[in-house]
From TrEMBL:
Belongs to the SEDS family. FtsW subfamily. It is a multi-pass membrane protein. It is found in: Membrane. This is Probable peptidoglycan glycosyltransferase FtsW. It comes from Flavobacterium glaciei. It catalyses: [GlcNAc-(1->4)-Mur2Ac(oyl-L-Ala-gamma-D-Glu-L-Lys-D-Ala-D-Ala)](n)-di-trans,octa-cis-undecaprenyl diphosphate + beta-D-GlcNAc-(1->4)-Mur2Ac(oyl-L-Ala-gamma-D-Glu-L-Lys-D-Ala-D-Ala)-di-trans,octa-cis-undecaprenyl diphosphate = [GlcNAc-(1->4)-Mur2Ac(oyl-L-Ala-gamma-D-Glu-L-Lys-D-Ala-D-Ala)](n+1)-di-trans,octa-cis-undecaprenyl diphosphate + di-trans,octa-cis-undecaprenyl diphosphate + H(+). The keyword Transmembrane helix applies. GO terms for molecular function: lipid-linked peptidoglycan transporter activity; peptidoglycan glycosyltransferase activity. InterPro entries: FtsW/RodA. One of its GO terms (cellular component) is cell division site.
Amino acid sequence: MKQLVSNLKGDKGIWSFVALLALFSFMPVFSASSNLAYIGQGNGNTLGYLVKHIVHICIGFTIIFMVHKVPYHYFKAVSKGALYIVWVLLAYTLIKGTVIAGANASRWIQVPFIGVTFQTSTLAAMVLFIFVARYLSKTREVAVSFKSSIWELWLPVFITLGFILPANFSTTALIFSMVLMLVYIGKYPMRYIGIIVGSGIVFLAFFILVAKAFPDAFPNRVDTWISRIDSFTSDKPDEDDYQIEKAKIAIASGKIYGLGPGKSVQKNFLPQSSSDFIFAIIVEEYGLLGGLGVLTLYLLLLFRFVIASHKANTLFGKLVVVGLGFPMIFQAMVNMAVAVELLPVTGQTLPLISSGGSSIWMTCFALGIIISVTKKEEEIAQEMKDAAKREEALQKLIDRELEEEVDKAENYSIEDKAKNPMHAVLNK
């Protein structure tokens, strides 16, 4: 174990908080999967779901370990080419997305041979953030014209978001918000950001009008996220209200200390209790203290991201940490806000805690890149430390040689001088 820990490079705080979140997820997932077990297998056995979740977490940590060994600037080189691959995957997903329970859920594709569904928007978000960080770091020392940035930066961003929007509005909004935050931190001109925000609002309004006018032209996911916004702003009961009510009952039942691990009642009635609404089950079983504990872990992870970004030795490294790290925390906050009805139902999971496969793996992939940035910082600091030690050792060697020369000069005795014939002549 000590040897394994010694092989983990990078920020130990990030490693620790990620491990704590992953370990904590086992009990809530094991408990909240009971309704899936009854529906899917009919016997109520949740052990299979726990084992599956543990396997996903183990694969995720393997991904972190492998990715953090790769120098992070390699991802800068491949981000532009990877964006084209992402567009192809998003287009395929939009057309051939998996049908779940008879409904068109054009957010997943079935991975051949292994039977795992993969949400391509998570990969698209990660690649897009790295692409934006690459552009900002490349243009940091030159004056940016709005016309050139439209073609080089915003056109790829809007193409990516355009593929995601019809099937997943919440993810589109999250990605766009994070891109705006990233360009703001990267010192992109504010007046240009204002124009882009206005253009985005106009485009979204136009898209909604088209979706309303031609409801058969888009998958029914468009109707889903439009109805979610409508139901959130109105008192008309629907399925989302049922989920929110059950989530609020679960949170209220937990009180301060919770009902105890595995003793949730609402997990048997709350849809997506092991994924989208797992925070409600956590509060019901572990109480307000448990919910605040989870929130604290995410805030501590955010704190480590801020430190890692501040210490990064390149602008690209700083922006990569912000672009990949902050969305995880923001997604967690959105998930918690949905559970207490501060936001409409979005379908965003709780990173590293909710059950899932590809979402956990993509989160771990992003964490691997972040840790790779912090590992580079450590390597540079170690190189500077080693250089200082070598310089100190060399200086000590020089000082010792000088001391020996001085000692020789001081110990040049009178007898030695007398033996010197020239010295005897000079004395006469």
